[in-house]
Amino acid sequence: MTRIIKNEDVRTVKVEIPEGHQHIRTTVVLNDGEELIFQEATISNILRAFITVKTHPVKKSIRLRLRKLNDRKDGYAQWQLIEEE
Q: Domain locations in the chain?
């Protein structure tokens, strides 16, 4: 299912570090009552891709794909959104 979310479709957006957590969560509540809760890593990856497309002189798109990483830095999740070439 494809759905385009416009400003007028969004009731509220809350960005917070929930009590007992260390990372930011972003909650988007749509006018139809649906809630989308994003972990910090997800928003960070989307934001990084967005800024790259917006500011890069040549790149017009970036696709991020879910990958399971067995070899990763300490503190990083096993599942990551990685840019496809």
A: 7-83
